[in-house]
Design a protein that fits this description.
The complex is a heterotrimer of chains A (about 210), B (about 130) and C (about 600). By secondary structure, chain B is α+β, with helices and mostly antiparallel strands. Chain B is built from five helices and three strands; from the N terminus they run αβββαααα. Chain C has 16 helices and 27 strands. Chain C has about 600 residues and is α+β, with helices and mostly antiparallel strands. The chains are: A mainly alpha (about 210), B alpha+beta (about 130), C alpha+beta (about 600).
Chain lengths: ~210, ~130, ~600
């Protein structure tokens, strides 16, 4: 349990003490979950997360420190940035899963580039197929492909999200982390395929 | 940041794009991916007497990945397998002055070389096995 | 509440200020019965600057010396301004040392920041005169789609005007505050803000006291000016049909055509047809014609279409549909054009909200935000976003995004850099802002040189660079070498903004005008003192009549009248001397009053212990 650096009372958020209203400079290094005083688990109530986000924003935003001493104003800016980033990560189901894996990885090392067996070969084949369709400008076939990819993406997401929810607050073992990481990796390849489907130009990002 | 003419060249005109027949015993194929961005890279080498005589690649990804693989195919040509194995991603980074956000592209190229050589050696083992037993 | 922070809408065509008086809502700052608007127009006459209405009135006598639409030039380089746009301006532009645009006037060159500073000064001066207090801080609004350079330029303009821009606020967001606090309803709102030179669309989610911007989009070179130009184009055609080989490119002709176009545009907001006559002083012809709304419609349509495309992009970015919206708010002078309203209504499928004057709503919102910053209220919070992605140049001229568009600010991003050569002690990073893949399509914000990296083998140093974006959407950068934990120093080379040295030089130069400013400040102070003295005398007049001979009383009365008259004047020294005279005349009165006060104070003291 984190304690306030001023009044030593337990903190509801690593950024700010509700008891003595003090900004916590140690909060600049806080992890995304402790920003909201949450345990590191996947299952998050988005409504109450948003509510905490709004409450904390109202306490920390630099607009309320415009007349405060410079050091305090800077701290409020830093803490607000931390708060905004943490909210950005936790409210997004994929970013939240990836973040959890990063937290666990510190404890159980995994191979971060792993993919399900045969997945890469399949992706390469699909990319080649897609390239032909794009060159032929076959809109109908492209739309079908796109729908396929989307379905696959949704199934994949549903699958790992269920696994993560079932984990609750238990610390996972290496196999579990590896499984989730593989799926998160696979997700990015699928997103890349989808991106190419919707890009009409052959422009590539350097 | 200034970039060498050579680098820009690799973007505009990537060398050795294409593929060899995968089942050819002389060919080793490396297929690798970068989960950071979803890039996939296929790099193939053609080997004669432990020496790489030709190389080809096909990359679906960003320009940095394309340049890294293009450069990798140039570099491995004429090298022995052991020499090629010694190529490190940092050399590619240096040659292309890749920024930190794109370092994974060079890692990808290094991995592709290693995977291709590994694939070639595995093939030699399996294809030489029947001869040995015969 | 501490020091007052006013809100200033620094517009392309018009500027104005607003503030919140205690216990009351926001109000625009104006003399009773007069317009709060100061046209963003300047001219120079006999070496002296005229700003606002005065300059506008003289613009026809003095077309090449009249500066307008300066906001379109803020934070830009000359090469970024298309030739056709340059041709439309009656004044000349040239390029500064780092490519920044300079405005030529009377064989002098000025940065847009300096010119904007003069407008801000005029706004500040008038607000000070009306409020009777000196002002040092302001919330200044900018188009939401302004990038870092344009925001910095605005902040620098404020500094040159002697104002601390405590907050650079997005115009549509300011409008949303004014509306949102008026209605206090949760929901999704779209703010369509079409000003003289810029267009913004912002989508906000209102939840309790939180105003959260979800997406913003726009075009900083699209606005009512483009309507005028379309009409000018049509007028030019008509004139040249009637009188062949007419020269319409002189600065005077351009100014006449522009003003006629504006009159037609405004006229057609109220009626379906308008008659006009065009003649130019030094030319023999005169052209008469009429314009109908039906003729206007096809001229405006392409410009309006461009704004609606931006609206669709913003909706896509937010993941919202038109039906999700609870309200559409119109802001900016150009939204009074009926065709704009009609098309906006058609696009959004609902009648837009126009309850608050679109000319004033931005300033009012800025005034409310200023009140909040000054500590006057805490009952709402604005969470705004960065309009365009921020990133660095990577190999081959690629733009690598570090912070994506529509990220809530303040925010920060960290990136690691290393060296390529042994014992390398400096690294250069080019920072860009934009939404395109290649840096050549984005704005270069500047070059950051990291120095003081400890000498190590190549690749060993790990320099962690932190990019911070504050609540104003303005970037700052810091760096730390992680292995040695030493701060690398950063030298910022702004591309089109002002360097610190340039700001200092300009401030130095402005001391030449400091006499004017000093006078203004003194005048305000003396007026306040005079007001207090006059009130004091009135309060004790009963005592004066008893204690002083009637001749003295008459003399005091007369002198009070003189002081009252001088208070309306502009010369602080004259006011001061008349006040001194009043002081002399009332000295004996003061003694008497003082004596009485002492006496009564003594009496009070005597009675209190009982």
């Amino acid at each position: 349990m984190l304690l306030c650096s001023h009044c030593q009372k337990p903190l509801q958020s690593a950024l700010w003490c509700g008891a003595c209203q003090q900004l916590q400079s140690s909060g600049l290094q806080a992890d995304d979950f402790s920003v909201f005083g949450l345990p590191p688990r996947y299952d998050v109530d988005l409504n109450s997360l948003e509510q905490s986000y709004h409450e904390l924003a109202t306490e920390l935003h630099p607009d309320f420190f415009a007349t405060a001493p410079a050091a305090e104003r800077r701290l409020s800016e830093g803490l607000s940035a931390r708060l905004n980033q943490a909210w950005q990560t936790l409210q997004d189901p994929t970013a939240r899963a990836q973040y959890l894996i990063e937290v666990w990885k510190a404890k159980t090392p995994t191979h971060e580039r792993d993919l399900p067996t045969g997945f890469l070969q399949e992706m390469f084949a699909l990319q080649e197929e897609l390239e032909e369709l794009l060159e032929a400008k076959d809109q109908q076939a492209l739309a079908t492909k796109r729908a396929d990819f989307l379905q696959r993406l949704n199934d994949l997401r549903y699958n790992y999200q269920q696994q993560l929810i079932e984990l609750k607050e238990n610390t996972p073992d290496t196999t579990f982390c590896k499984q989730i990481q593989q799926q998160l990796n696979a997700e990015r390849y699928l997103l890349r395929l989808l991106e190419r489907c919707s890009s009409t130009s052959s422009e590539t990002d350097l | 940041m200034a970039y060498s003419e050579k680098v820009i060249d690799h973007y505009n005109e990537p060398r050795n794009v294409g593929s060899f027949e995968k089942s050819d015993d002389q060919v080793g194929t490396g297929l690798v991916g970068a989960p950071e961005c979803g890039d996939v890279m296929k790099l193939q080498i053609k080997v004669e007497n432990e020496k790489i005589v030709d190389a080809k690649f096909k990359t679906f990804g960003c320009g940095s990945a394309i340049a890294s693989s293009s450069l990798a195919t140039e570099w491995v040509k004429g090298k022995t397998l052991d020499e090629a194995l010694a190529i490190q991603n940092t050399e590619i980074v240096e040659e292309l002055s890749l920024p930190p956000v794109k370092i994974h592209c060079s890692v990808l190229a290094e991995d592709a070389i290693k995977a291709a050589i590994q694939d070639y050696r595995k093939r030699q083992e399996t294809s030489s096995e029947p001869t040995a037993s015969a | 509440m501490t020091e007052r922070i006013i809100g200033i809408d620094l517009g392309t065509t018009n500027s104005l200020a607003a503030t919140v008086f205690d216990q009351a809502g926001p109000e625009v700052i104006a003399e009773p019965g007069q317009t709060p608007i100061i046209p963003s127009v300047l001219t120079m006459r006999e070496g002296k600057w005229l700003v606002g209405q005065e300059a506008l009135v003289r613009s026809l006598q003095n077309p090449t010396q009249t500066l307008h639409s300066i906001k379109r030039l803020m934070g830009r380089s000359l090469e970024e301004i298309p030739a056709e746009e340059q041709a439309q301006l009656p004044y000349q532009l040239r390029s500064g040392e780092r490519g920044q645009v300079l405005i030529c006037l009377d064989e002098q060159a000025f940065t847009p920041q300096e010119i904007s500073a003069k407008i801000l000064k005029a706004v500040k001066y008038r607000a000070e005169t009306i409020l009777g207090e000196t002002l040092q801080k302001a919330v200044i609004t900018v188009p939401a789609y302004f990038d870092d350079v344009q925001r910095q330029a605005t902040r620098d303009a404020a500094r040159l005007a002697g104002l601390d821009a405590v907050r650079i606020l997005n115009e549509p967001t300011a409008a949303a505050i004014a509306y949102g606090l008026d209605e206090r309803k949760d929901g999704k709102i779209a703010v369509y803000d079409l000003g003289g030179g810029t267009f913004d669309i912002s989508l906000l989610q209102l939840t309790g006291k939180i105003f959260k911007v979800v997406a913003t989009n726009g075009d900083t070179r699209l606005g009512g000016d483009d309507f005028d130009q379309a009409i000018v184009g049509e007028l030019t055609l008509r004139i040249q049909q009637e009188f062949e080989n007419t020269e319409l490119h002189s600065p005077l002709a351009r100014q006449v055509l522009r003003q006629t176009a504006e009159t037609i545009k405004i006229g057609l907001s109220q009626s379906n047809e308008i008659e006009y006559t065009i003649s130019i002083e030094d030319q023999s012809w005169s052209h008469q014609g009429s314009f109908t709304t039906a003729e206007l419609q096809p001229l405006l349509a392409p410009v309006i279409q461009r704004t609606l495309q931006r609206c669709q992009q913003a909706l896509d970015q937010a993941g919202w549909k038109v039906e999700d919206l609870d309200e559409v708010v119109l802001v900016g002078g150009s939204t009074v054009v009926p065709e704009v309203r009609r098309q906006v209504q058609q696009f959004f499928g609902r009648a837009p909200q126009v309850a608050i004057d679109p000319y004033k709503v931005v300033a009012l919102g800025a005034g409310i935000q200023g009140h909040l910053l000054a500590g006057g209220r805490r009952d709402f919070l604005l969470l705004d976003v960065i309009p365009l992605a921020l990133g660095i140049e990577t190999v081959g001229g690629t733009f690598s995004k570090l912070i994506t568009a529509n990220t809530t600010v303040p925010t920060e991003a960290k990136d690691l850099y290393t060296t390529h050569v042994d014992n390398q002690t400096a690294i250069e990073i080019n920072i860009y802002q934009g939404e395109r893949e290649l840096v050549r399509d984005c704005r270069c914000l500047g070059r950051f040189k990291l120095r003081g990296i400890p000498a190590m083998k190549a690749g060993l140093p790990l320099v962690e660079v932190t990019f911070r974006v504050d609540a104003n959407g303005i970037l700052s950068v810091s760096a730390l070498e992680k292995r040695s934990q030493t701060d690398a120093s950063i030298e910022v080379i702004p591309f089109h903004g002002l360097t610190q040295q340039e700001i200092d030089d300009l401030l130095e130069a402005s001391y030449e005008h400091a006499i004017e400013d000093f006078n203004a400040r003194q005048l305000i102070e003396f007026r306040q003192t005079a007001e207090r003295v006059l009130q004091g005398i009135e309060m004790h007049w009963a005592i004066a009549e008893k204690a002083l001979p009637p001749t003295d009383c008459t003399a005091i009365r007369q002198q009070m009248e003189i002081v009252r008259q001088r208070m309306q004047g502009q010369d602080p020294q004259v006011l001061k001397s008349e006040m001194d005279r009043l002081g002399d005349l009332t000295r004996s009165l003061a003694d008497t009053v003082m004596g009485q006060a002492v006496l009564s104070a003594l009496q009070e003291q005597e009675t209190t212990p009982v």
